Every structure is written in C-alpha cells, then in structure tokens.
Amino acid sequence: MKKLFVLLTAIMLMISLQTTTLAASKKTATLTNKEALHIALDAREHFWSAMSGYNINEHSDYKLKSFTYKDMTYNYLSKTLDTKKKLNDYLSQVFTKEAITYGLKDYQFIVHNGKMAVPVGDGDNMLDWDKATPKLVSKKNTIRTYEFTVPTLDGRTVKRTVTYEKVENNWKVTKIDAVI
C-alpha cells in the first residue's frame, strides 16, 4: 500500500511539473501588449540605473564618486554594478547581448582603475512610460516590434518603437535606449 501511494504521488508530481513547464513555455511563446509594456518599463529602469551608476530602486541616496578622464567627467558605478560582468548581468535581464554591447559603447562606459564608469549625463526625460499604450506592428518568428504611444508630462504624446527578441524563452529589448 505504501509503494502504491509513493508511486501515485510521484506520477502526480511528474504531471504537475509537465503542466507547469508547458504553461511556462506557452507563456513566453507569445508577447502580449501588457507583457510588452511591462518589459519596456523594466528596460527603462535598467537603462536609467546604468546611466545613473546605481540601481535607482535600491539606492535613492547613493553618493557618486566622480573623476575626469580625457576632458570628460565620469561617475563610478555603485558596488552592485561596478564590474563589466555585474553590469552585463544586470542589463541582460531585459536587453539582448547586442543591445548591451552597442549601448555601453554608444554611451561611452569605460573601465577606470578596475571599476566601471559612465559619463555624467543630464538625467531623465519627460515621457510618462507608465501610461504608454502599446500596439503590435510587426511579428516574425522570434522578433516582435511594438509602437508605443507615450504621454509627455506637458500633455502631448510621442511615438516610440521598441523591438523585442526572444532569447532562451525570454523576450528582451534589442536597443538599450529604446525606452527613454
């Protein structure tokens, strides 16, 4: 009787795991408007955290250390992002590898004295991404392109195009500054 109970429990566990796996793979097979907006908001947060030098949701009072290099002022990134590996791991949560490679180059991130650094910038913009409206405009095998209508803080709206690529069952943004 004990063996039968163990066998039935094992079978139920296997069925449960298969159902969960199928549900997870089905979930990532499509990209809904709601998921596209959620990923865009995550990408925006990750972009601004990298540009700020610290995770903006964790360190609101983080004090940056600045230095000048080749006539440009840089800030060292915080301890959670201060190596290329840490920064890549953080950004790769929402961006493709290509987006990160080109983004770090375009925004002139450097390694200085063994630590990642970013040029001092001018900060945020006036787009209210929390109220953005997504519209699917292109759908290919593992690529989706959405056009977002994004309200501005002064009452206008602007259009932004964001392309997603499915990488290992996760949808990722293909351009690091697509959501600024």
Give keywords.
180 residues; alpha+beta; four-stranded antiparallel β-sheet; 4 helices; 8 strands; globular
Find the count of extended strands (DSSP E, 2+ residues): 8
Q: Taking all residues together, what is the mean pLDDT? A: 84
> What is the overall shape?
globular
The SS-based structural class is: alpha+beta
Strand order of the largest sheet: 1-2-4-3
Weakly predicted, low-confidence segments: 4-28
Radius of gyration: 21 Å
Strand content: 25-35%
Q: Summarize the helix and strand pattern as letters.
A: HHEEHHEEEEEE
Major sheet size, sense and barrel closure:
4 strands, antiparallel
Helix content: 25-40%
End-to-end separation in angstroms reads: 63 Å
Discrete helix count:
4
What does this entry show, briefly?
With 180 residues, this protein is of the alpha+beta class.
How would you describe what is shown here?
- This protein is 37% helix and 27% strand.
- The chain is an alpha+beta fold.
- InterPro entries: Endopep_inhib (IPR031841), TA_system-associated_sf (IPR053749).
- Keywords: Signal.
